Amino acid sequence: MEHNNCANFLAREVLDSKDLIKTYGGIGDEISICWIHKTAIIDNAIIGKNTKIWHWTHISDGVSIGKNCIIGQSVFVGKGVKIGNGCKIQNNVFIPTGVELEDNVFIGPSVVFTNVINPRAFIERKDEFKSTLVMQGASIGANATILPGITIGRYVMIGAGAVVTNTVFDFEVVIGNPAKAIGIINMDGT
């Protein structure tokens, strides 16, 4: 059986490559190198091989991160989030419970995903959220806001600062507030 995980982390356990060797007695078929900054908080999560997690990032319980990902500085990943292989998540991104990123997704700096339709401080709604799916190869520009309960299609390009309120279809380019389609794009971004 192939093992693609760097390690299955227990609550608050933070390991880098040297710690993996020390903790697990070596690196064999079951343990592969990943890099996690010592200030990152990793709860009970699965981290794929060759993934890098930077300063002050918090990965919550039940998160699954694929192999060959880069998770930038000061990123929050909520409980149960799924992140595919080859994803690049830039600094200061907020990904709450209910979000799934397929393979090779790019998330620009300071992107915010939301998951509650009508939040109120005085009403407990921690379990009332809508799911969001970001499909393979999509790119989301810096400072975009993604409202809950939508799908972002394959190889979509979302412009910086866009506020995405509705589903975006495969290969669309969307910009603005609210985000509107202005064209289509190829897989390679041209």
UniProtKB/TrEMBL annotation:
<dbReference type="InterPro" id="IPR011004">
    <property type="entry name" value="Trimer_LpxA-like_sf"/>
</dbReference>
<dbReference type="InterPro" id="IPR001451">
    <property type="entry name" value="Hexapep"/>
</dbReference>
<dbReference type="InterPro" id="IPR018357">
    <property type="entry name" value="Hexapep_transf_CS"/>
</dbReference>
<protein>
    <submittedName>
        <fullName>Putative acetyltransferase</fullName>
    </submittedName>
</protein>
<keyword id="KW-0808">Transferase</keyword>
<dbReference type="InterPro" id="IPR050179">
    <property type="entry name" value="Trans_hexapeptide_repeat"/>
</dbReference>
<dbReference type="Pfam" id="PF00132">
    <property type="entry name" value="Hexapep"/>
</dbReference>
<dbReference type="GO" id="GO:0016740">
    <property type="term" value="F:transferase activity"/>
</dbReference>
